[in-house]
């Protein structure tokens, strides 16, 4: 199974256009959106291409493939426009027998992980900084970064799970930034 993970769109249609190119190239079966879809948020700069209505059109066209969770900038008004559910604080995904806990990261995250077994993947966004590491408790912390507002000197990025490997890739080129082969579950 191939799953593409993305987070922190913050109303940027240009970022979604680049992401759709990667989706077309990689052809994942599942898309996971880890929150912060439309609103830029009061602590983030307003991107020149900020146009949440265009993002709605772009993402609604992928609605059958998206599993999404609510970010700290997502609201019930956003849900009224989007044709796929975004209001859940978390979701789970089973891929190749591996458990993924999907959340935005403002409640559950690497510093406050949910109760998961070793080897499970905690997939979250929120920080806008890519992360791929095994925590002390054996949980894999996976943050695909932000497609629109990367922080910490990082480039815009997304993540991919395929054949037991997690990768974080640069949004524009698709080049791998980091990867990890997961242990057999």
From TrEMBL:
Keyword Metal-binding found: yes
Cofactor: a divalent metal cation
CDD domains cross-referenced by the UniProt entry: MPP_YfcE
EC number: 3.1.4.-
Gene3D superfamilies per the UniProt record, alphabetical: 3.60.21.10
Residue span, Calcineurin-like phosphoesterase domain: 1-161
Pfam families, alphabetized: Metallophos_2
Protein name: Phosphoesterase
């Amino acid at each position: 199974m191939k799953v593409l993970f993305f987070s922190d769109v913050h109303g940027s249609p240009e970022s979604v256009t680049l992401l759709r190119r990667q989706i077309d190239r990689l052809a994942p079966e599942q898309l996971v959106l880890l929150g912060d879809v439309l609103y830029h948020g009061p602590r983030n700069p307003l991107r020149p291409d900020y146009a949440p209505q265009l993002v709605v059109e772009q993402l609604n066209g992928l609605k059958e493939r998206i599993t999404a969770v609510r970010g700290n900038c997502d609201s019930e008004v956003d849900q009224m426009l989007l044709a796929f559910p975004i209001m859940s604080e978390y979701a789970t995904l089973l891929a190749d027998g591996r458990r993924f806990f999907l959340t935005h990261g403002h409640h559950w995250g690497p510093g406050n992980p949910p109760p998961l077994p070793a080897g499970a993947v905690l997939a979250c966004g929120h920080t806008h900084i890519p992360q791929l590491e095994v925590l002390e408790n054996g949980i894999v912390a996976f943050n695909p970064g932000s497609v629109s507002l990367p922080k910490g000197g990082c480039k815009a990025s997304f993540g991919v799970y395929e054949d037991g490997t997690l990768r974080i890739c640069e949004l524009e080129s698709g080049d791998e930034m980091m990867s990890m082969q997961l242990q057999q579950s």
